[in-house]
């Protein structure tokens, strides 16, 4: 038996969970799902139907990405993500999830929200980006000299923000944020968590993650 992670490659919440699992080398069996056809096995564990979901060996179910990050980093924290995160990691992540993410969604899917222009949604999302920029002018990472849980929980969302209109982002007045994002995207760790897997629904194949991740598990 091994812990089972229900994941969706492009979901930023699932990315932050996979980042912490990969960083901590806590092996799980990865089941790649598609959001339009969620497997009954996952919905039975977590009826709210969001990814990521982690079923632990004990049977306990973690259905919030931050809980999965904390679980993984409490198993092992070789990169010091939790160690270098004093309490204020929560303030950054709460702002990301509650304030930035709703505007990011509206900016990204602006056709579904015709009340305002995409630029207006972007400007509202930029309040958070500007605060990140201010922080990164003072310290290389959000919480100081070391990369932490806060950077890793937020970077997948900033990546999504940047990719809505990459040309705009690259000329926007956020050089520190651009460099912080680039370092993340270019990292071996990020590349390792973005490998593609066949969906579990179709193939019933699950994969060892992170090590020998592409080997189907018996
Ligand atoms: N608070 C949850 C949010 C997870 C979430 O909203 N995930 C999205 C995908 S990025 C999802 O599963 N949405 C359900 C759907 O689209 O059907 C967490 O942190 O894990």
Structure, explained:
This is Glutathione S-transferase. InterPro entries: Glutathione-S-Trfase_C_sf, Glutathione_S-Trfase, Glutathione_S-Trfase_N, GST_C, GST_Omega/HSP26, Thioredoxin-like_sf. Pfam families: GST_C, GST_N_3. This protein is α+β, with helices and mostly antiparallel strands and 218 residues long. The protein folds into 2 domains: 92 residues, 3-Layer(aba) Sandwich (Glutaredoxin), CATH 3.40.30.10; 98 residues, Glutathione S-transferase Yfyf (Class Pi), Chain A, domain 2. A 5-stranded mixed beta sheet has the order 4-3-1-2-5. Strand 1, helix 1 and strand 2 form a beta-alpha-beta unit. Helix 1 packs parallel to helix 3, helix 4 runs antiparallel to helix 5 and helix 5 packs across helix 8. The radius of gyration is 18 Å and the shape is globular. The model has no long low-confidence stretch (mean pLDDT 94). It binds glutathione. The site of glutathione has 10 residues, from helix 3.
Topology:
Blueprint: E1 3-7, H1 12-24, E2 28-32, H2 40-45, E3 53-55, E4 61-62, H3 65-75, H4 89-108, H5 118-138, H6 149-164, H7 166-171, H8 175-185, H9 188-193, H10 200-203, E5 207-209
Parallel strand pairs: 1-2
Antiparallel strand pairs: 1-3, 2-5, 3-4
Architecture per CATH nomenclature, i.e. the level-2 architecture of the largest domain: Up-down Bundle
Note poorly predicted spans.
none
Strand order of the largest sheet: 4-3-1-2-5
Secondary-structure element string? EHEHEEHHHHHHHHE
Task: Determine and state the CATH class of the largest domain.
Answer: Mainly Alpha
Distance between the ends? 11 Å
Output the number of helix runs: 10
Question: What small ligands are held by the chains?
Answer: glutathione
Helix content: 40-55%
Overall residue-averaged pLDDT value: 94
DSSP strand tally: 5
* Largest sheet, strands/sense/barrel: 5 strands, mixed
Q: Which class best fits the helix and strand makeup?
A: alpha+beta
Radius of gyration, rounded?
Answer: 18 Å
How many structural domains are formed by the residues? Answer: 2
**CATH topology description of the largest domain:** Glutathione S-transferase Yfyf (Class Pi), Chain A, domain 2
C-alpha geometry: globular
**Percentage beta strand:** 5-15%
What kind of assembly state do the chains in view correspond to?
single chain
């Amino acid at each position: 038996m091994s812990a089972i992670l229900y994941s969706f490659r492009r979901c930023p919440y699932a990315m932050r969970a996979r980042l912490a699992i990969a960083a901590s080398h806590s092996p799980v069996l990865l089941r790649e799902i598609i959001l339009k056809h969620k497997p009954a096995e996952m919905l039975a564990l977590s009826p709210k139907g969001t990814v990521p979901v982690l079923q632990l060996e004990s049977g306990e179910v973690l259905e919030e990405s931050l809980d999965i990050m904390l679980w993984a980093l409490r198993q092992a924290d070789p990169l010091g993500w939790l160690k270098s995160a004093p309490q204020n990691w929560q303030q950054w992540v709460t702002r990301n999830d509650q304030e930035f993410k709703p505007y990011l969604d509206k900016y990204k899917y602006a056709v579904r929200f015709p009340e305002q222009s995409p630029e207006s949604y972007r400007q509202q999302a930029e309040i958070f980006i500007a605060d990140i920029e201010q922080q990164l002018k003072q310290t290389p990472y959000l919480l100081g000299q070391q990369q932490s849980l806060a950077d890793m929980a937020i970077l997948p969302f900033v990546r999504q923000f940047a990719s809505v209109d990459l040309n705009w982002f690259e000329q926007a007045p956020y050089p520190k944020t651009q460099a912080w994002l680039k370092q993340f995207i270019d990292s071996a760790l990020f590349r390792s968590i973005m490998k593609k897997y066949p969906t579990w629904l179709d193939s019933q194949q699950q994969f060892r993650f992170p090590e020998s991740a592409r080997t189907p598990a018996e």
